[in-house]
Amino acid sequence: MPAATPPDQGHAVVVGVDGSHAALNAVRWAAAEAVDRDLPLRIVHAVPRDPGGTADAVLPEAQDVAMIAAESVRVQCVRTIGRPEDVLVRESQRAAMVCIGARPRHAMIEPVIGAVAAALARGAACPVAVIRTRSDGTAHTDGVISVVLTDDVGNDDVVHLAMHEGRLRGRAVRQIDRRADSWVRRFPDVRVETVAAGSGHQYGRDTGAHDDVGLAVVGPADADALPTLAMPTCHPILGYPDCSLLLVPR
């Protein structure tokens, strides 16, 4: 049986950059995505006005980081005039994925996501990766990949993307079952370990992954709520939304 292809194949994997450390973490993450999908990595730097003949130091630095992260990556560098959120929403129309960086949240009163991520959550036409940077400068992506199983239309696409990321990143995927009629919900007192028959995986096998959630793959309902979410309420993914996020649009 051939390997499952990544969902939502487009013309490129797009990453928005602004010279920040968080953006460079997003470039590293996006470079692996582009190589895995056999697509170019399109590095986009949006500027508010035409700088004339001024050299753009942001793009060469981002290109160098991408080439170090994945030697075989094919890079396209673009500087364009406009607000980053408008530019990246437009780029999403022909992208397999849009990636951006996000700094750590230092206080609960801060918005859950910034203006660019909020605009992409509302209007992107492809999945959006928001790669969170920790206070020490490292990318918050090194834990398990978590996804919620629901009865929502399109949930299979969300889970498909989570499984793809688990294979690509070498991470365990934690599936949280919230389906109304699932066996887990019928028998909440029974501990369940899910293993696909014929996969060669054994019960209790140590995955070697950190228990902390490094990436939450979420569907349209959570993505729609993010721009207006000020104080996170109870969510089945522990650590959400302060981990890195992969938003799957409606």
From TrEMBL:
> To which protein family does this belong?
Belongs to the universal stress protein A family.
Q: What is the protein's given name?
A: Universal stress protein
- Could you tell me which residue ranges the UspA domain spans? 13-132
Listed Pfam families = Usp
